Structures are given as C-alpha cells and as structure tokens.
Amino acid sequence: MKTKQLGSFGVEITDLDLSGDLDRTTMKEIVEVVAKNGVAVFRNQHLDKPAYARFGRLWGEPIDFFFTPDLDPEFPHLIRISNSPDLDPGRRDGAAFWHTDGSYEYLPAAFTMLLALEAPDVGGETRFADLVGAYEALPPETKARIDGLTVKHMLVGGKRGADEVKVKLDADDKERDGGIRARKRAAEQPEHPIVLTHPITGKKGLYAISGSPIGMVGMSEEEGLALLDELKRHALQPQFRIEIKAGAGDILIWDNLATLHSATPLEYSHEDGKRRVLLRISTNGLPPTHADRRPAFVKPEGVTSLKLA
Ligand SMILES: O=C(O)CCC(=O)C(=O)O
Ligand SMILES: [Fe+2]
C-alpha cells in the first residue's frame, strides 16, 4: 500500500487490492489511514457489487437510506448516484451543498464511500473541508465559547449559501417509500454536539456545522444560525479544503465525523465521457476492527428503529 498526501489532509492510496479478504491488521491500518487523513481515495479497485458490499460492512453498520428509489434492488445498502437526465429534477445535484452525511439522524453515518463505475472526462470532483484542522485553528476564545454547545438538526434543514443547491425532497409524496421515509426523518430533530471527540483518532473537531443544522440549543434561532454561519465560513477557507475526483474504478472514502463535503454541480448527460455513476455505502457505529472504542453516537432511549414498519 502506497500513500500520497493530497494536501493538509486527504490521501491517495495505490498498490492495494480491496477486492479479496482483508486480514484484520490490514483493515485496521486502512481504517486508521482514513480516520487520520479525513478522506482517502483508493485508486483502481473495480470491485463488483458483492465484493463492494462485503467491503462496506468492514466499516460499520450500513445505513438505511431514506430515498428508496436510489437503492440497488439486489444490494439495498448500495445507493446509486448518477447524473442521468432521467432522474427527477429535484434530485439533480442533490448533494451539491456543504454537509455531513446523516447528521439529521439520531445515529449519524460515520463513514461514506463511493465506488465510481463511470466518471466524466471533465468535472465530477467531490469537495471536502477538514473540520479537525478548522477546529484546531480556532482562537482559544472561540473554542471556549463553543465548548459543550449542542446543534439541532433536521433532514434538509440547513441554511444554504448562494453557491449551494437547495435540495428538494419528495417528502410529501405518499406514493413512494422514499417520500415516507423522508417525511419520517424530516419530523425528527436530533441534537448533536458541535465539537466531537473522534472515537478513533481521539482528536476534537467541529461536527456537522452545515447542511442539516436548524439552530443551537439554548439560543435564539438568529443567534444560533449566526454562530453556525461564522464557523462554516471559517471551516470553508482554502487552507482547510481539498477536492478529489473519483475516477472509474476508484473508491473514495471519507470520515463524516471529521469533514464536511459537497458534490460539484455537473451537467446531466447520457453521453460517453459525460456520465457519472457511483455506488455509495454509508455506515454508522464503529468498524469491527475498532469495536472496543467508545462510539461517537448512541441512539437515545425511547427512539425506535428508523426502519419502516
Ligand atoms: O457525488 C458526490 O461527489 C458526493 C455525494 C455525497 O454527498 C454523498 O454521497 O454523500
Ligand atoms: Fe454526502
């Protein structure tokens, strides 16, 4: 396994084959490389669906994604992302805003991975911001001010910047399973700490300060959103940013407990050289290699399964 640093965070990994059985020592090392660097791209993997689904389970419990039409019929934990013009307009560029996956859940996603089946010749990068580096660079007064604060989250709740796409969800579409799940989740307002200690690295970082936050516990809406906005502007400065393009066959994995990310808007096309198709897996909890750690999140008492009855 060869590693190359991509910036102040982020790493590219070559000379590693993820398709076969990975022994525990190797897998532990891979998890720690991702956690330490926030995001990693594993070049030239070309896994088939069974191998990829198996690999995904080495990162934790695969999530039940709220939008069922995107799920692979055979492997429901594989979520299809594509720029096909046949998709509903509301779903186009649905991830082109700064967010942390699953922060609208009581048990948010810890890792997300994308296996690129097709990549466009131009564009299609994923943008990342380092929330550990951003936290560490905060002035001591700000760290003291935010210490112990709690953020309220909601599915598609967050305020969007001018350059971010506002997601439209078919949350009211009673005909579709995805609509029902989305509606259930949109009704939930979990609260999560604004500063999180990472269960694997032990480092502190800002958590999910963009995408789903609708306010801060114990503050007026205006005051809470202003604080979140200030932290977001800080974290999106160029020194905390990188972009990575998943080429066909690559697996891009990020640590949702330590980063924000955003897709880049892309033309919707069926044409050769313009298609972008990926299979996504998100997991929560801890990878089996790190099951001895204290998890970042636990579901509170009384919260029933988020699965549909
Ligand atoms: O398409 C991308 O580059 C990122 C999509 C995304 O935000 C996700 O899969 O969670
Ligand atoms: Fe995402």
From TrEMBL:
Annotated SUPFAM superfamilies: Clavaminate synthase-like
GO terms under cellular component: cytoplasm
Name of this chain's protein: Alpha-ketoglutarate-dependent 2,4-dichlorophenoxyacetate dioxygenase
Gene Ontology molecular functions: metal ion binding; taurine dioxygenase activity
Family: Belongs to the TfdA dioxygenase family.
E.C. number(s) listed in UniProt: 1.14.11.-
Keyword Metal-binding applies: yes
Domain TauD/TfdA-like residue range list: 3-281
One Gene Ontology term from the biological process aspect of the record: sulfur compound metabolic process
Gene3D superfamilies with a match to the protein in the record: Clavaminate synthase-like
Region feature (Disordered): 286-309
Top EC class, one word: oxidoreductase
Source organism: Terricaulis silvestris
Keywords carried by this UniProt record: Dioxygenase, Iron, Metal-binding, Oxidoreductase
